[in-house]
Amino acid sequence: MKSYKKIFIILLLLVIFIYVCNITLLPTSLILMQGETLDVKTILGLTVGAVQENQQIMQASSNINKNTVNKAGILDVNLNLFGKIPVKDMKVNVIPQTSVIPIGKAIGMKLYTDGVLVVGMSEINGKKPYENSGLQEGDRIIEVNRKKIDTTDDLVTSVNNSKGSTVELTYERDSQTLKASIRPVKMQNNEYKLGIWVRDAAAGVGTMTFYEPTSKTFAALGHGITDIDTSELIQIANGELVTTNILSVIKGESGLPGEIRGTIENGTTLGSIYKNTSYGVYGKVSDKNKLNIIESEKVAVALRNEIKTGKAEIRCQLDNGKVETYEIEIQRLFLNNYADNKSMVIKVTDERLIQKTGGIIQGMSGAPIIQNGKFIGAVTHVLVNNPEVGYGVFADMMIKELREVN
Fold this sequence. Notes:
This protein is mostly beta strands.
């Protein structure tokens, strides 16, 4: 009999643990587009109810989960256990229906990191001063001896000013702020080194996806810019949007990704960059004329339930001064994917593009995808073994990132 009680208690604790984990992992805020369905991933017994003063945004009911949100605004909701016990509050920001101008133009980007990024380590005169400090590749150093640093030069100056005394580094890893103490090694030229390699900037060429005229903001790439050494998403302090000069197009083949090769040397500044995310790079446009943005080309942003498999088109630039439209086919849709930027499988069907590039190549990331006169997403990845096929990210993911940063 006692064994049954133990089993019952263990099962009860397990159920409680599952519920606590589910409630804890649920977000405290969500962003929805007007017309989307509220879809909070809950388990049996948890219901989502609207707070009284915001019920005009959604039809009031005991459980509003899986309902369509028809009006823009802030919707305060609460999660209840068995409809009676409140367990968590949630704020839903319902953004209004949006229109954007698809661009498809090749652009250059310069990103400046927040602090300096550790990209490698090496011995100094047979010593490893960084050893046992806890510092790793991919960490971002933001302070030396409690003094903020922004560039590699700031770090070098601070270390040399230590005259060989132990320096305290403040760095960030996975949103955690940590500290490390390292004693520099003196070199023959009387400089001091920590034995770490760092970087404070990155640059590249990609495709601008769209321009949002009311806020004068843009989105590009459809994916984030990662560091070439660490493969980590670069945390930026700021950046520049600049013109690029296309030098050549390398055709993609099975196993060998193609590439749009361009240069941003002597590029003209077009705007600023303030966010680098998994769903693209975002910023403000300061010179709309040089981008040849035409206001009359504005189109509505499609909701997921409006996107269908079948014919669509992309816009991209492969020659200087010329943006063209090419036919593609949407082969698969992952309508429930909110985790990454692989929202749909696309295939290039336009023979002109296949002849020139082999399909999707590096530098085309961010090319806007249009279907039935609406903006539905952007190109993000290519399948290395089949350059005619790749992935795209849904438009709503990019718009939500845009609204979140504003």
